[in-house]
Amino acid sequence: MGPDVLLPIFVAFPLIMSAVAALAKNKIVHDVLALLIPAINLAGGIWLYNYTAETGPLTHVIGLYQGGTGISFMADQFAAIMLITTMLVALVSNWFAIVSGETRARFYTSLSLVLITGVSGALLTADLFNFFVMIEVMLLPSYGLIAMTGTRHRLASARTFVLVNLAASTLLVLGVGYVYGVTGAVNIASLAGAAAGNGPVTVAMGIVMIAIAAKAGVFPLHTWLPRTYPSTSAAVMGLFSGLHTKVAVYMLFRIYVVIFDLDARWNWFIIVIMIISMMVGAFAGLAENSIRRVLAYQMVNGMPFILIMLAFTNDEPRYALAAGLMYTLHHMITVGSLVLTSGAIEETYGTGTLSKLSGLMRREPWTAAIFAAGAFSVVGLPPFSGLWGKLTIVFAAARAGDERSWIVIAAIIVASFGALLAMMRVWREVFWGRPMQRFPEGLHIRGTLIAPATALMAVSLAMFIGGGWVWEASLNSVDSLLDVDSYVSSVLGDDPIGIPDVATLQGGN
């Protein structure tokens, strides 16, 4: 029995513990499980990162079936570093849920653990259909989490969330079915290079990519995200911000590298879509009236900064993808901190509406400092992780040395300026101005409420100080992503069956 048998446990253990949480009536049990399970998967992700750094990809096929015919789990450094960061955000979001009292709702913990189950499975699967299954495992508890309080506004937002994600999931499973129809396989390793130069496979995989892009909140399929995420509790929005969209980013990277083989024909299409998405995310938040609605557009703004790097992979794929990954890690941590900071304000003052808050800089200096740090990081200012995130994106784009570089760098500057304006507006409305008179002088945000956001900003600061280490980890992770031969060999084994002849598929174009 080798270490590969541990891979399914990343999925099975949270699922089993979610059942335990659902049956348990003791809040202490709920709180312990809410922290313990993501912490265990976080520690497991660190182990996976170190182990795969030494041995290469780690694969396990359920039932020990031959490659290409069973349910395959695969871990490499790229999957491991995403698992580490998603579990960190989940851990801190559940910490906030505990201190804000949200775990008093009996099923919060069990639903959050099912969400963690789906995230872990989506990051470790090596099969398109099983990715769809894990996405559904993520979505089912999300429907409950987003509507947990049952308020009229949340139920309306839950309806939008359900309808959009059901439509995207339907499109995803149709795309996967089409892929199987034209290739006879849905195992990712089996499809290596299949969409590069083959019309039917490209169309089929295009449907899959559109569905995943909708789940990532990319223009023009982004409007559901700022309408639904801010209507949840801050703890749930923190979970969603670090898990849902980033799982989609992970799979878009994996598919584009393995199945599309970094097809350069899509470069300009990617650039146009992502620049529009940047501008919408950067400036649309200026029209919103609450802190978390502004932050929701910063989530929309972050996705194109990551995905636009796919348009530069034909020049320097290693550096372009590493820049996208480094920005992903920064964005998960920073936005999570900002969301939880706004949650601490809402829990204390009963509102996150900009017009109802003012003067918090004097009343809540520590909370103001944490929010300012997050704003600095989102915009790309030191001394936080956003500086290196933005710079690596700009440097990777500049390496191309053609018109794409000029256009994308100009768009990044403009979008960053839009994000700065949005964050300055929140600061002016909420933290500057006259002290609020309608709240008693003794009312202040508890230290336990702001502690989770503080912890994430400490991580962002550490990522700035240790920027060289984070960049090296990103490069190593991307090297494992780009090593398609090792991926295919690990997943399919020495005697794969049912594998399409890619050369024949490409010849059909």
TrEMBL record:
Keyword Transmembrane among record annotations: yes
Domain NADH:quinone oxidoreductase/Mrp antiporter transmembrane: 127-412
Principal location listed in the UniProt entry: membrane
Alphabetically ordered keywords of this record: Cell membrane, Membrane, Transmembrane, Transmembrane helix
TM spans (from-to): 6-24, 31-49, 78-98, 105-123, 129-148, 160-181, 201-222, 234-260, 266-287, 294-313, 319-345, 366-385, 405-427, 448-471
Lipid bilayer topology: Multi-pass membrane protein
Family, per entry: Belongs to the CPA3 antiporters (TC 2.A.63) subunit D family.
Official protein name in the record: Monovalent cation/H+ antiporter subunit D family protein
